[in-house]
Amino acid sequence: MNSISNIWKHPRTSVAGLLIVVVSLTGVLSQHGITLGAAGGGTVVTLVSALATAILGLLARDPAGTSTSAGSPAKLGAWALLALVLQTAVTSGCSGASVAQNIVNWTPTLQSAVATVDSTAALLDPADTAIFAAATMGFDAASNVLVAQAKAYLANPSAGVLAELQVAVVTLQQQVNASLLQMARITNPNSRQHALNSISAVGTTVSAMLALVQSVSGKAAVARMAAQAPLKMATILPLIDADRSAQMLATHYGESMELARAQMEQAEQAQIEAGF
Question: What is the distance between the alpha carbons of residues 226 and 177, in angstroms, rounded to a whole number?
Fold first, then answer.
């Protein structure tokens, strides 16, 4: 009876617990190849898992107070992060088509970020303009190739097109990493910050796209991609504003900053472990 009465006394906690169970069960079903049918570009299992995680995220964002009770936003936020981790096992089984669409969905953000880089030179100290221009001169061409390959993969998610997409995303990622390192040559602190902010926006977008490409690539392909990436992520992470990057993810996916930070950290760790 106490268990039943607690459900009514702590409805938010009860709903959060139920959602955690849903995400856990869908993870088990996905791992055993049970899809329960198709839903859009994915499966019913992945759709249910995503919806459960999204609802849990909304519960965590509900400004219901700052108490430390079992149903407090702080604890619900922690549970939302747990659901995100659990959902990783489910979403890793998403179809190539759904991932391809997700990659293409990032292309407008990439194009906007590159356009911002092109206009940033006007904000810099004249003495720093040449350094910045030289460091970013390849962004337009490399980003155009990546956008084209992303759309080609969406239209034809074959192994051959995926291989070209893998090369394109690593190429731009390496250009961004090299550019960030070059910004150390800019001595004017205001110029350096403007430069880092604009390049980091491109870097965050490319990292998100790289994570998606990585999710549909085999181990051998990921190892090959990492071997073509001598400038490692761990080297440039101290140059990137983590809050600005998380905000980009939160805006793109329409989620809380807490979930966006968890996604970003998880993706970064996965890429570092893979050798990027």
Answer: 14
Q: Phi and psi of 63, rounded to 5°?
A: -75, 70
What φ, ψ does residue 228 adopt, rounded to 5°?
Answer: -90, 10
Domain extents in the chain:
2-94, 98-274
Can you read off the two tokens belonging to residue 49? Answer: 């898992």
- The distance of Cα 69 from the centroid of its chain, to the nearest Å, equals 32
Closest CA to 188 of 127, 134, 240, 120: 127
The 3-state DSSP class for residue 36 equals coil
Helices assigned H by DSSP within 106-188: 107-120, 126-136, 139-155, 159-182
CB atoms within 10 A of CB 54: 18
Give pLDDT, residue 88. 46
Q: The tokens of 175 are what?
A: 């250009």
**275 within 8 A of 226, measured Cβ to Cβ:** yes
- Give Cβ neighbours of residue 265 (< 8 Å, ≥ 6 apart): none
Burial code (b: 16+ CB inside 10 Å, e: under 16) for 109-124 equals bbbebbeebeebbebb
Tokens of 161: 């097109």
- Ramachandran sector of residue 140 (left: φ over 0; alpha: ψ -120 to 50; beta: rest): alpha
**38 strand-pairing partners:** 43
- Please tell me the distance from the alpha carbon of residue 222 to that of residue 165, in angstroms, as a whole number: 12
The whole-number pLDDT of residue 266 equals 86
Q: Counting Cβ atoms within 10 Å, is residue 255 exposed (0-12), middle (13-18) or buried (19+)?
A: buried
Convert the pLDDT of each residue in 157-212 to its tens digit: 999 999 999 999 999 999 999 999 999 999 999 999 999 999 999 999 999 999 99
